[in-house]
Amino acid sequence: MQSSLLHPESFHPVFKTSISAPGHENCTLNLHYGLPPMIFIDPYELSNRADTYSFKYAGPSNLELPVFALGGGGEDDKNAQLLVTMAQPLSAEGVLEVEVPLHARYGHTRASTVASSENSFQLTQIPWPDAFLACPASTTKAKSQLLPSMRPDFAAAFDNSFIVPLSPPPGAVPVETIRTPVGDGAHVRSVEVGTAVTVLVAFFYLVRAVRRTMVRLGTPSVALHAKKQ
Prior knowledge:
The chain is an alpha+beta fold and about 230 residues long.
């Protein structure tokens, strides 16, 4: 098992995991992701991958909120869990690649006194997924105790399966880092003023456009005037 991030310096990275587990062609591959508050997935986007895998997701439902606007509960309530189950069993070769698109939230603005360009970015660590195979159980008591820690409603799907965990290669550091830009606190006021001015200008432009349209529709056309004559 080997994982990596595609586009790690963007707000839309992709978590790619490569699996090699020959000899388990009757088993189904599963990946369990633990996502920190800075990271979320779009369930509608993953639904488009139904031919490749199904998924279960539990986490904050306000997808586009910045991380500092996530309300309610403690830090654990702001974390998310994602369980991905491949649609097809492994082939005899047992080689498979899984890609899960992720999205990063907007972070806290940095202090205006910080001049270093490195502090213009926020680093977020994401652990590799827990990968495991769910194989047909030969007996009713064959449930493995090696099932990764996950929500009870996620784990219930494997009550009658024998679990084969898949480990990272020796020496691997099972964590990836996303580097996303953050705003400068000194610019907040000017951004707010600029946004307000833009909204007002757009409002008055629309009012003017509506009035001109009403005047035009209320004036008889030349063709209609000629017809009446």
